[in-house]
UniProtKB/TrEMBL annotation, chains A, B, C, D:
Residues 167-186 are annotated as: Disordered. It catalyses: glutaryl-CoA + oxidized [electron-transfer flavoprotein] + 2 H(+) = (2E)-butenoyl-CoA + reduced [electron-transfer flavoprotein] + CO2. This is glutaryl-CoA dehydrogenase (ETF). GO terms for molecular function: fatty-acyl-CoA binding; flavin adenine dinucleotide binding; glutaryl-CoA dehydrogenase activity. PANTHER family: GLUTARYL-COA DEHYDROGENASE, MITOCHONDRIAL. It comes from Lachnellula arida. Residues 46-157 form the Acyl-CoA dehydrogenase/oxidase N-terminal domain. Coiled coil: none annotated. Keywords: FAD, Flavoprotein, Mitochondrion, Oxidoreductase, Transit peptide.
Length: 426, 426, 426, 426
């Protein structure tokens, strides 16, 4: 009873296409292996996507890379970079209209990867702008909000920040304390009070998407706070300095003290954690892509070093088994991670990506990138301590990517819940 | 200069398809997550492949699974299983003609996965028949050899074995000692002498593809040794018992003592390690697929146990964080590994798969399956020691899959060589 | 203000002993490194302990080792081994009087290590007899109970078993269901009913220390059930076969169906989990020691194999970096684990060992022994599947040691509670 | 024949001391567990050692800790710290005479641990002064050299540096290129030329112990280069800035250009790598101790954070299983590592420590400290990126300790050679 099916399909297949001949002919000339794309993920891309990827990589390597070492040392973020990204169509790239590029989620992932190949901090700045703020507005905003903010943000002229995490509420944003009450004096305005922390871009942001509990429902709502409209003393965004990682991105707090926000700046329909989680989901998707870029850069740097560095009878250290294993491990994880990103991107384009899929690729890709980057760093021996080799910067950055937008353990529990049907957060 | 490209492609894309609307509509109804196929690899399969997979899974669960516990305990291999596989078209499934199914490499992988979901030993028996022997004959054999052996092997009536590894030469088959000399008495015959070990199916094999060094060239050539034609004392295939794993498959030696083999049974053209390595490459591809089936079975068994088993205030242990993390890790690796298999299968169909790609997925999938199976086994606590739960059997099997057809470290060095251009075997 | 102290002590030390001269003289002739005792733990042992260790090792290697392969294959436990151990003073070795040896806890650990160097199953049989049952009687029994059971148990003539774990209650024994009620017909007797599982030695035990909830208090009490006194049908101890590990030890259930036990066979004072946990603590201490023996045997076997096995240009595989790293890792963990055992043994002799210390060394030594044994097993390549090499048996056994007497995760939570003051079991 | 021994020893022991009574009495009052010293390593210390440890810890916490955050941020090393250490007797503490404290190797280790509990950079500065330079002079110097340098170095008035590693020769110092030739113009002087890098303290060092190949023998010899005596342009010691770790210590190069060094400043007898390796061995012993201090500080900081930080229904995150496991793992490794240090210290005092023992504890303690510090860092979530929590600094430092004075893989191969008798460096 099992039999007919396979025979049938076999027959169909056999009649339809002479695979075997082609296949075995191909065997005769073994295919080359490309360590930079070991499982040929390129074969899954459209021509447009390939073109976008090439452009993005060229820009990032030629224009961004030369700036990053100094930026990291001095914790400086060059705001011009957002404008350059805007010119190239990187910002809000999946959005249709409003001057956005309207590309596929895979293309967007490739852009993200190109940026993070240079530095996770630059990618963070872009992610916040694109996924968290522009994505949020496009998804949940009114037509007026979209038209007001998206075109300028797409150009990188208006800088966005996303205020969810609070000093006492990281993994558990539902317990946030920031509130939106009726403004005591200004008609048609709400008054926002509370404190947000670890907010990328906040010190330079023009528009801050702040999540706060609405006075009537106690439910979380999203508010677009425009810095230029805030009276003195109602909005402060002090920078947080002396960071251990992501030093090429700006991080700060958002301190709201009875800050007046027009009711028209509230997202109209979305309530509860669905709003911020949808935005985060999109950003996490970008992180999963991005960090494969950082990992690939670590591989490339470690490989070059291992080929150049000679120890013991003039052998390049690339000849030693313990070194080769590190390279093999990292290359494998980069290749597997990339395929997973492409797959989720395709599903996302079709509206078929479950949020847990994104938890899965964000968690795994970040964990593996970090683990491998650290292992590759060992190849540099004592030289790893010099920031000139770049790998220490990636290691420090990647630790942060593992902890933000869902710390790795939190994503483990999200997956555990999806697998077992039981939550284990508490 | 970077700019136009993206804008162009964006324009093209925007005009071509209204993705965004569809995408965001989809957001409104979040997609479900399926722990059995977390990244929706099914979406990558053709209808034929899905149908083949369903048939194979049904047969394996209904017909093979009930036999495995006893087979494993007693180290017994039911030869009838090969015939059943033959009836279903599992054997040599990618070969065109000769009664073979001629399916895609992905379909073949799905069959392999279904079999190994039950037991790696059954899959080993099938792999040897299909990939190593039938594949070898189809690739390198003469037309006469193909017509003589393939139809019977496809039916499972003729059982094959593959003799490469020798007692003193495992990872380094190029140093093999088995030789093929002119037969002292039989004209047109070669005389094979030497010893092969860890040969799956050898005790019951009808035809043994033996690799031996040719007396004239010193190069490795392939010979089809037919048991029925061997004079007494020239071919012995003693079984190796008391194995730690793969106990549902038969393993033995091949001892050749001036065994006469007609010259017509030699592969005509292929010389050196290219012959056996091509066969192994194909088998390794099957292993990479197969063990994701074993891992998925471990996940399923551990999940069920964790939901059923209650400890501490009546909580199912699935509620505990340390348990959920194990499930999340395993599920992730299974999902990533499956995507990599699909990708390499597609490339293989197009003649674009490099051997190192197969080293990569064989190594990674085996390593991760073993690691995760062991970790999942911890969930069973003391009960894991009982063979009724099945997971201990998978763990023992998976260790063997990690060591055969290229021990994990050897594949690391194959990858290391491909990445660096330098060999580190010695 | 900090200063004087060091100067003072320095002065004292300088006057007290001319260390430096001796030390630097010693430098001139570098000390040898002994891979079998890398950190010279021997230097911490008394002469008696060294002598005991040598005797135990000699007996185990000469008399026990030759029996283990067959025992493991056939799941047979030779009861005579307990008698031999009894003759040598291995049983209840730390107990004073009753024919027991009365040795230090370190000496006892060394005996345990010698036994487990051969097989964890043999050590399990001994641990149950010594630590769980004899130790329990010596600690909690009445004088009459001690005199009745201990001398025969010390000789290995009376075999003990320890019944705590139940089919539905493993990590959480406080929820046990076995009860002790007044016997309906026999005056002065309690009636025990319930079911225990995974009980080492149960099928051959003469006396079974069963923990059950007392009808009056609901609290757990200990009862010495004598098989010879049990009416037919009230005590069954069916063996559990087809185990994945510990196959050289006997395992079974204890099924009590209104089994009459004289009140005089109840432990007089101890109530609640303190009783069984004290016994387990002592057994766990033995496991921590024992598995270092198993690990050392794995190291020795892997080292020998790596030196004998030649691959690639005739090099012993011991020459390869990836092999050496595995040996270095394992040797380090064995050395560190041994020092920890000696330290806890000394503290135990002085009544200064906290139970959490034993959780720490049991967990760590089991986890590391298992991890390293698995890694060393990789050195054997395909040959690892043969049980003749012995390492597969250790790997299978060590997995069980990780899960019994406190699964590794449970000990993590015991330690976590001790470190944080907060319990995380539920 | 095995029997008598144990019985005898048992008898002796039984007569000698009534252990059991004491032991079981102790059981009645279970001992407390101290997470800061889980296996009671304190019980192994002498009173003097305890006193020294307390003094050192008090100084480091009260005087050094307040300076480290700023020092790390600004890559500034306060030279006064060496003088303070000198006043307290920390420098060259195991040396007898010359104003040194002459304490045991364990006491010296405790001092090192106290310093590295604050920062690995401070410990590095001290190690170079004490172990590498003072230790080298004391071991290999002439009486005149000792009297000239040691008293001032013990006070911290003369700062030392140790020049072994060269830009192209790290793990393989035997291939060094620095040479000592007869000085072309200055009688009785040698002329040193070459370049050393990653030299701790070099920018401020007064005396630099430089290893160079002697022109006559081609063998490596040690030379004491006094900065004050070097003509302009013959000695440069530029600082290396922008380090990824150890930023509280000074690092630089040593550039020698025909630098004249009096023959009297050459170590008289020692030739080849034995000289620098003896010094390194002593320093590595200190590192093994020191990093347990850094790890313990990470544990303490993570524990405090986990108890203070509340997420999900107001629970401190210390309540979550995934957090407790991290704390349990780290605490275990710190405890095991400390015992190993004490043991090797005692053996060192007796001239019984093999160099491979030090490779073992240096490698293991560094590897485990780094792994655990990174894992503990995850507990801090996003807050880990702030340098105020201190743990990121330890993580960055510990990576360097893993790579210097023998990168971890090199020590693996040193151990592998000691275990197998075969070198695998090339």
């Amino acid at each position: 009873m099992y039999r007919s099916l396979i025979r049938n399909s076999a027959r169909q297949l056999a009649s339809a296409r002479p695979i075997a001949a082609r296949r075995f002919a191909a065997h005769a000339t073994p295919q080359p292996f490309n360590w930079e794309d070991p499982l040929n993920a390129q074969s899954l891309l459209t021509e447009e996507e390939l073109a976008i990827s090439e452009t993005a990589e060229a820009y990032c390597q030629e224009r961004m890379l030369p700036r990053v070492l100094d930026a990291y040392r001095t914790e400086h973020f060059d705001k011009k970079i957002l404008e350059e990204m805007g010119e190239l169509g990187f910002l809000g790239a999946t959005i249709n209209g409003y001057g956005c590029a309207g590309v596929s989620n895979v293309a967007s992932g490739l852009i993200t990867k190109a940026v993070e190949r240079v530095d996770s901090g630059y990618r963070s700045g872009m992610s916040v702008q694109s996924s968290l703020v522009m994505g949020g507005i496009d998804e949940f905003g009114t037509q007026e909000q979209k038209e007001k903010f998206l075109p300028g943000m797409a150009k990188g002229k208006i800088v966005g920040a996303f205020g969810l995490t609070e000093p006492n509420h990281g993994s558990d944003p539902g317990a946030m304390e920031t509130t939106a009450k009726p403004h005591p004096t200004k008609e048609g305005y709400l008054s926002l009070s509370g404190s947000k922390t670890w907010i990328t871009n906040s010190p330079i942001a023009d528009v801050l998407l702040v999540w706060a509990k609405h006075h009537e429902t106690g439910k979380i709502r999203g508010y677009l706070v425009e810095r230029s409209e805030c009276p003195p003393g109602t909005l402060e965004t002090p920078a947080i300095k002396n960071k251990n990682g992501l030093r090429a991105s700006l991080t700060g707090m958002i301190q709201l003290d009875e800050c007046p926000v027009p009711e028209a700046n509230m997202f109209p329909d979305v309530e509860g954690l669905r709003g911020p989680f949808t935005c985060l989901n999109s950003a996490r998707y970008g992180i999963a892509w991005g960090i494969t870029g950082a990992l690939e850069d670590c591989i490339s740097r470690a490989r070059t070093y291992a080929l150049d560095r000679k120890q013991f009878k003039g052998n390049p250290i690339a000849k030693y088994q313990l070194v080769q294993k590190k390279l093999a491990d990292a290359t494998t994880d980069a290749a597997f991670g990339t395929l997973a990103c492409v797959q989720v991107g395709r599903l996302k384009d079709n509206g078929e990506a479950a949020p847990e899929m994104i938890s899965m690729i964000k968690r795994q890709n970040c964990d593996r990138a970090l683990w491998n980057a650290r292992t590759l760093q060992e190849i540099f021996g004592g030289n790893a301590v010099s920031d000139e080799y770049g790998i220490g910067r990636h290691v420090a950055n990647l630790f942060v990517t593992q902890t933000y937008e869902g710390q790795s353990d939190i994503h483990s529990l999200i997956l555990g819940r999806a697998i077992t049907g039981i939550q284990a957060f508490v």
